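Q: Can I see a sequence and its folded structure?
A: Here is a first one.
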Amino acid sequence: MSFDPVSRLDGKVAVITGGLGAIGYATATRLAALGATCVLLHRKGDDAAARAAALPSANGQRHAAIRADIVDTPSLVAAAAEVKATLGRCDILVNSAGHTKPVPAADLDALTDELIDDIVRSNFRGVFATIRAFAPMLKASGDGLVANISSIAGFTGVGSNLAYVAAKAGLDVVGDALAKALAPAVRVVSVSPGAVESGFVPGRGAEFASKMASTTPLGRIGQPDDVAATVEALATTMRFVTGTRIVVDGGRHL
């Protein structure tokens, strides 16, 4: 395969989990504008088909939305089969689904066994299961890209809760292992934001965003498009990159 930069993604198929979320949809918008056909995987969303249809269609591509839950492996297998049957390929997989709940690191009792299992299941196991389901098509592409939306929590140890920290750290390390296992046909990269302006973490509003911005070297928190732009770069210009972490946090981790 060639690692030369490209400017367009015409003919490529991109599958985005959490496709209706802020980061997922921003990423789909960028990839679609470059000619990729995008498939939004979502757990629930009555407007999913309409939002898929609203994505840019620079060369007449018809985007799609498929209901699938990353913690339900049969639904992922079914989604991959549908993509294969209808589009014939998957070249880019963006894993942006997951969820969390704020729990102070010192409050050990609040981080129950059930919550740990839930967080790890959705933020680690579900991502791995998604990669597993789409790996055959990614390998068949010969020019596959897996972009795992991770977090600086995975290497700073500071995040919404310690189970989330562990899940993202595990995702980063396993992503590196998969980059070796799936090379050279598929590249695997972790994209690690800091605080992003979205509703991902419940209960964090304008006051939290202002506090985070004031202690971030570049003076603001991230936007979903900051993360989406990084995935776009990995698909187009940063094509000799695999098995590593791209930090997109305005210096928040420093």
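Q: Show me another, different protein.
A: A second, unrelated one:
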Amino acid sequence: MNIMLFHSTYGLRPAVRQAADRLRAAGHTVWTPDLFEGRTFDSVEEGMAFKDEVGKDELLKRAVLAAAPYSERGLVYAGFSLGAAVAQTLALGDDKARGLLLLHGTSDIAPNAGVDGLPVQLHVAEPDPFEPDDWLTAWYLQMGRIGADVEVHRYRGAGHLYTDPELPDYDEEAAEATWRVALGFLEELGGA
């Protein structure tokens, strides 16, 4: 599969590169665009302040420009937290998208969005302060209404960005379970 993998609000950190390497080792082609143009952050607050300074429209523009040269190939959009929100926005607007892999995040769904059975897999902590239960329930129902085929995997007791070994949220057991399931999802997409 051709995978466009977007980083979190921490920026393009080693954990994102390691995730891309893991996906490549499984036979996938992976791009990791740097939406923050080289900036990385040590806290969510710093990253969010920078994201707000750059602006949502500019970040989406950067993401679209990064994906555009490859979208004809039929991309799987993927991302971590903020990057998952970006991936979701792009996947729902790309009629050639092959799938959507969301790690630690979701996004608003445009009122005019519609997909034809787009496979979507979400991995998220339970509970997650950035993805509360009522939000996730509404998101899941709305994704179904627009035509997505959604799977949600919850990880009780894990922190928000539990797949990043350099962050306090890291949970090795949840991270390995996530990657096992996600790689199976991508393998199924490859055979579709």
